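Many introductory courses stop at the sequence. We go one step further.
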Amino acid sequence: MGTQFLWGWACVVVLQGFASATQPAGAPEARRGGGPAAEERTEEAQPKVAKLESARVQLDLADELRRGLRGLDEARRPEARRRAAEAYRAVRGYFPEATAMCAEAAYRCADLLRQDGDLDGARAEYGAARQLGASTPWRVRGAMELGHLERRVGRASPALAAYEAVIADETAAPSQRDEASLWSARVLADSGRSEDAVRVWTRVAEHGDDPLDRIRAYDGWAQQLVTRDDLEGAAGVLERCRARLADVAQEESRLGERVRNALTKMRAIEVLARAVELRERGSPKREGAGGGRAHDAADAARRTDGARSARRTGTKYSSDNTGDV
């Protein structure tokens, strides 16, 4: 990377060594820093990240520090993460004109801060990645991760806003828009906005780019109908999913195999079967009035469970095989 890079790296190492070497080994406790003045002096003595010859080299240094985390034990990781995060911040501090690399540095920094539990810091850095990464993948990735961060801490409105930013971004790949839509539907459902969630799941299920994302959408859609006690509707969604994905599922390809596996592992199948069983046990009058539809729902789920067993025993896939998925 050149003499200047090595010199910059050496500066960091030397300064770190100097900071620890200047503290006498046998110093009394008062000299090691118990009061505010001592803490202030310690803070001032902390080494700074050296400025290197270019934004690219500065980013490479931060990447190297991040990769170095892999070999550290858990006790040493927090401090190492903070040093790597500071190195990423230095890219933006020293080379603000290199916006693409600053966006990447902000995204990487945010990941480290999130892992360290600094959610406010991570939120700010993901925001910087979005702002600076207009012509880069980091804008969409920053928005997606910001949505995940807000969703995990239960902040529905900011999470939905971040996911909507991905969905509306013309530079986002279709798979990214579908992923953001699926997470948006999940947040809507958890927030009690069932109708809105179903609309989003329906859009991805019917028009999604990736067959696996479409299956996830059908799965969420069917489970949501079960929570409304619309078991017949849920069974219809599962049947619709099998029919719409049948062509891909029959392919003798890696994608076909993955689709078949995803179809048999849909959580809605088990959720629906349990709901039908509970209905049959607990509501004899209701079953008598509309038992045919309830039994149809149960049969759909059981046929799919039978298909799972066929898969485990090696039975060849066939769309004509008792509701095989």
